[in-house]
């Protein structure tokens, strides 16, 4: 695998004013760190290499104004490609791109775009049209930006819709949980009341069982006392002598 560090040599030596030409360098990786150290290189030519992907940190090269990535093997652009907000001229001719990242809509400075000779999605290909002259390439940039902005808006609406659905689902889950907790509290409250009633009845039964022997004893005592009194009354009349006058 060829890297710019060994085949491309010192990038600073290749810098001509604000232009850095790394075309035809047999690159299969982009020397991002070295490029980041050259903020003066606002025009970058990476055409005619073997690039299949761009690293995500490539999107940190926000100083780029003109970028040529034509005649590589790029299958997709990084998701945050839209961070290259100063980009005005972008050449993606003859790659393997099917779609563009939604963040492409953020390239508000883009004035020129070439997407020819890519296996683009039919809808995107129709929007892009040809780029056979300056006018068409400018139209391509404008139309594709508008298309990607519409896609971004659609995705944002869909994201908001999903969030709303998730919020509603969460509310229902919370309401269901609250109802469940309330039901559990009611069950615990009822069980507690039933337990208290059960204990009260046990206590009353225990007291009643203790009073029963006392009542029986008292009744027996009363009966005994009553019997003795009757006997005493019946004996006295017969056993007493009448007094002599």
TrEMBL record:
Region annotated Disordered, chain positions: 151-245
Listed InterPro entries: Leu-rich_rpt, Leu-rich_rpt_typical-subtyp, LRR_dom_sf, LRR_domain-containing
One CC-aspect GO term: nuclear envelope
Localization of this protein: Endoplasmic reticulum membrane; Microsome membrane; Nucleus envelope
Known partners and oligomeric status: Can form homodimers. Interacts with SGO1. Interacts with FGF1.
Job description of the protein: Required for nuclear import of FGF1, but not that of FGF2. Might regulate nuclear import of exogenous FGF1 by facilitating interaction with the nuclear import machinery and by transporting cytosolic FGF1 to, and possibly through, the nuclear pores.
Protein name: Leucine-rich repeat-containing protein 59
